């Protein structure tokens, strides 16, 4: 494919290259009729401005880097869409990378994106402080963390969710349905301050409502089989009401319960973090603690835009979680 150049436009419009450059970049004085002829030639030829050349003339490129752990995860897909949509409406294109929950891959993407002279980055960080994350601070690259934070990096604003309101409402729903024992599957909490906070919040709330002896908490890994032994141990302890701090674990559990012939909303009651579309398509529909992903994404993008435009350093912001009760929470059987 041969790209149209300003020399091609000059030949079509019968003007000089310098005149075309002034007309297309709105610089210098040029007769309106000449400018109109040049713009018409550019449209007819299908001219696409060279962003690299434009970037050389400006301190901004109009390109933002976005890094998420796994674009296949519906939650992060929704988050990326909300961020990209807000940035696009503000005139920015988004370069999206996936860290695959690996700190080394995360750092490699950051270095690669920096080489493209991006205006800044929005990151769902993986793990703790790394050399590449530190370099963003050192180089004063406008950066926002969304969904997760990194301990020891207060210089970077964070937009995440407050797990307390949603968890409090979900536990209240379990209590109202007669449950005495509650299980919480934390997810892969290693190096995840966000999942660790959810677990701590659950332990505090559930311990006060049900008594610590009736609260069962275990974590999992990114393995697709890590849920099975956890669920087995909890059910052997008489637990039939579960909250999942990580939606991918909930999806595994739904499959496991189905293969065991257990009825969700009957034999088992279940609540998951993240209001995935899948959870509303299943039968029964799954009760969720929503992080309000659209709000997190658009707010994170807006803070990024404020940073790029040279505004004051914004404060981190929290979005309240909201509990949506659905059919996956049913009444507890006697003596459960």
Automatic annotation (TrEMBL):
It comes from the Bacteria. CDD domains: HTH_LacI. Residues 4-58 form the HTH lacI-type domain. It holds the Pfam family LacI. Keywords: DNA-binding, Transcription, Transcription regulation. GO terms for molecular function: DNA-binding transcription factor activity; transcription cis-regulatory region binding. The lineage of its organism: Bacteria, Bacillati, Actinomycetota, Actinomycetes, Bifidobacteriales. InterPro entries: HTH_LacI, LacI/GalR-like_sensor, Lambda_DNA-bd_dom_sf, Peripla_BP_I. This is HTH lacI-type domain-containing protein.
């Amino acid at each position: 494919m041969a790209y149209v150049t300003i020399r091609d436009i000059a030949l079509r419009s019968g003007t000089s290259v310098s005149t075309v450059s002034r007309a297309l970049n709105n610089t210098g004085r040029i007769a309106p009729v000449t400018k109109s002829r040049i713009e018409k030639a550019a449209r007819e030829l299908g001219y696409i401005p060279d962003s690299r050349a434009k970037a050389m003339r400006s301190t901004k490129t109009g390109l933002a880097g976005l890094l998420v752990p796994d674009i296949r995860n519906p939650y992060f897909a929704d988050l990326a869409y909300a961020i990209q949509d807000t940035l696009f409406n503000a005139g920015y294109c988004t370069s999206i990378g996936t860290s695959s929950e690996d700190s080394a891959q995360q750092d490699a993407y950051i270095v690669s994106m920096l080489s493209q002279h991006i205006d800044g980055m929005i990151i769902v960080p993986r793990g703790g402080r790394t050399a590449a994350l530190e370099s963003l601070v050192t180089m004063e690259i406008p950066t926002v963390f969304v969904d997760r934070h990194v301990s020891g990096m207060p210089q970077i604003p964070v937009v995440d969710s407050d797990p307390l309101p949603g968890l409090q409402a979900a536990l209240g729903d379990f209590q109202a349905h007669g449950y005495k024992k509650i299980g919480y599957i934390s997810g892969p909490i290693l190096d995840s301050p966000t999942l660790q906070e959810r677990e701590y919040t659950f332990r505090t709330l559930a311990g006060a409502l049900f008594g610590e002896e009736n609260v069962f908490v275990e974590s999992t890994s990114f393995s697709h089989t890590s849920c099975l032994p956890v669920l087995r141990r909890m059910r052997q302890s008489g637990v039939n009401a579960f909250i999942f701090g990580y939606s991918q674990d909930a999806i595994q559990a739904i499959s496991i319960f189905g293969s065991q012939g257990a009825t969700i909303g009957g034999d088992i009651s279940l609540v998951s973090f993240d209001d995935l579309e899948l959870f509303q398509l299943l039968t029964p529909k799954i009760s969720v603690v929503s992080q309000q992903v659209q709000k997190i994404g658009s707010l994170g993008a807006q803070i990024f835009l404020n940073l790029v435009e040279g505004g004051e350093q914004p404060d981190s912001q929290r979005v309240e979680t909201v509990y949506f009760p659905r059919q996956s929470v049913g009444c507890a059987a006697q003596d459960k």
